[in-house]
Write a structure and sequence with these properties.
heterodimer; A: alpha/beta; six-stranded mixed β-sheet; three-stranded antiparallel β-sheet; globular; B: mainly alpha; 14 helices
Chain lengths: ~230, ~325
């Protein structure tokens, strides 16, 4: 049985006197891709940010590689997990070469860029890239931060949003490859087709976990209709 | 590709030449005097302008990095105003004590700058950067009004405070008075340089910076503290000069790109050069009625800033 790298029990988050996540339980083991789905505002981003250690005010039990990410120094956490935000930003107009210098390994960053179809673009500035290209440039940083992936946790928030079919497929393959290399991956997505290829799916609604398990049992037609109002 | 090392070396060389020219120029004409007496007279002023400009350039670059906003500047966010208000409160409350103890003035300036920075962070907590900057503008107006009120109420401090608000203190710099603030500027500059890597990652947003291993809270705390130190030391030397902290980082980014490892030292060198140039021109072009460094800085800097802002994507 694979090692559990990420576990949460009764995980709750209140932001500005409003409960955005309530009593969520999950486990993600090495080699596993766990999809997190739900309508807009269901709590997907909050769940990922809490797991990444970004919300120290989150309550409940939380374990990332055996430690509590809410009480761990950022430098230590950075060796255990990587995170890709839903809306990556940059205050300054870095070139891809400059962005690569912020990564743990510039060489690895450029390899990831090339893998996502951004090769030979080192001198291009972020402002010169399309929205999708910018997204994969930042995703390259997240994958690069994951290093060899073995025994680490990858948390990606809607990584394929704004990507064309080809790049979305490349990202999905990279996610699967990271899991095969020994990472536990938690990925929030609106792409139900992709979610159906995950090993486990968590379905959130108004901050609560309403279904969890293998996609064939968690993502039933009734639940999809009830959650998204579509067949 | 830009070559940061070459640009930094060139900027340092030009700054050294400018410093030599500044030592040779003044209301008494060109040259250092028969026995170097003009050199000795001008040296404190030149050193004070160099140190203050260095601190202003780096302080502005640091505040822009911490707030992730190219419009941040300690002159606009009330930090300079807070430093000057600290000085005004001390002068109004304990004039004799102030002149008896050389550490009193810089300490009061630092306390004022730190109090304004803390108020800025506290009042702007949980708000967008734009609202934080608006809060800073409000604090700036408040501290300026406080200084002017004290200047009006305490005639013995009036001239010195009015000159400080106009950024016109460089002319009264002596080594005896200036060495402590100069030391403060250099110390703040050296410590600010250590923030480069954290500021680079903070540019990607707080979440991403944290996930790449940066202690965001610590970076913000250090930023506030060091900017207060840089701003207060610079204010003790020049008075209130708003434009250097805004212009120098923009110019540096245009020359070597946004990475702070090269941008921060260049912003410091450019800040030093801009302030020294402004002061030298102000006292050399109009020898009978010298123009303050702050006025010359704005006169030269504003068109340059508008030009940079219009041609660059930030």
């Amino acid at each position: 049985m694979s090692e559990v790298l990420l576990a949460a029990l009764r995980l709750s988050v209140d932001l500005a006197d409003h409960t955005v996540l309530e009593g969520v339980a999950l486990t993600a083991s090495a080699g596993e891709v766990v999809g997190v789905v739900g309508a807009n505002g269901a709590g997907k981003t909050t769940l990922l940010r809490a797991c990444a250690g970004l919300l120290p005010e989150a309550t409940g039990e939380l374990s990332l590689s055996g430690i509590d990410p809410r009480r761990t120094a950022p430098a230590t956490l950075a060796t255990l997990r990587a995170y890709g935000p839903q809306h990556p930003t940059s205050a300054w107009d870095y070139t891809l070469a400059e962005l690569g210098q912020l990564a743990p390994s510039a060489e690895a960053f450029h390899r990831w860029c090339a893998r996502f179809g951004l090769g030979a673009s080192a001198t291009r500035r972020l402002s010169e890239l399309s929205g999708g290209e910018r997204k994969v440039a930042h995703l390259s940083l997240s994958f690069c931060a994951l290093g060899d992936a073995y025994g680490k946790v990858l948390l990606l928030d809607e990584p394929t949003t704004a990507l064309d079919l080809c790049r979305a497929e490349l990202v999905a393959r990279a996610v699967r490859a990271s899991a095969q290399a020994g990472a536990a991956v938690l990925v929030a997505t609106h792409d139900l087709a992709w979610a159906r290829t995950c090993d486990q799916v968590l379905v959130l609604s108004e901050g609560r976990l309403i279904a969890a398990g293998p996609p064939e049992t968690a993502l039933t037609a009734e639940l999809v209709r009830a959650t998204w109002g579509v067949a | 590709m830009k070559r940061p090392a070459g640009t930094l070396a060139l900027a340092a060389l030009l700054l050294a030449l400018l410093a030599l020219a500044a030592l040779a120029c003044g209301s008494a004409g060109l040259g250092w005097g028969a026995n170097g007496e003009l050199l000795i007279l001008r040296l404190p002023r030149v050193l004070a302008a160099l140190a203050a400009g260095l601190a202003l350039g780096l302080g502005g670059a640091n505040q822009q990095g911490v707030f992730r906003n190219p419009l941040a500047d300690p002159g606009l966010t009330g930090v300079f105003g807070g430093a000057l208000l600290g000085i005004a409160l001390l002068l109004a409350g304990a004039t004799e004590f102030t002149w008896q103890h050389r550490w009193a003035l810089p300490t009061a300036a630092f306390a004022g700058a730190l109090a304004t920075s803390a108020a800025l962070v506290w009042l702007g907590r949980g708000r967008s950067t734009a609202k934080l900057l608006l809060t800073g503008l409000g604090l700036n107006a408040f501290t300026a009004a406080g200084t002017l009120l004290l200047a009006a109420r305490f005639p013995e401090a009036r001239d010195i405070l009015i000159n400080g608000a106009a950024g016109d203190w460089l002319g009264s710099a002596t080594l005896e008075l200036a060495w402590l603030p100069i030391l403060g500027c250099v110390l703040a500059a050296l410590l600010l340089l250590t923030q480069a890597s954290a500021l680079d990652r903070l540019a990607l947003g707080e979440d991403m910076a944290f996930c790449l291993g940066t202690d965001v809270a610590q970076t913000r705390r250090a930023g506030v503290l060091l900017t207060a130190l840089a701003a207060s030391a610079a204010v003790c030397l020049v008075g209130q000069v708003a434009f250097i902290g805004l212009l120098a980082p923009h110019l540096a980014r245009a020359l070597v790109g946004p990475r702070h490892r090269a941008m921060l030292p260049l912003a410091g060198l450019l800040g030093a050069g801009l302030l020294l140039l402004a002061d030298t021109l102000g006292r050399s072009l109009w020898t009978h009625t010298p123009v303050s460094a702050a006025a010359m800085t704005a006169l030269l800097g504003a068109p340059a800033f508008i030009w940079i802002a219009s041609r660059r994507h930030e």
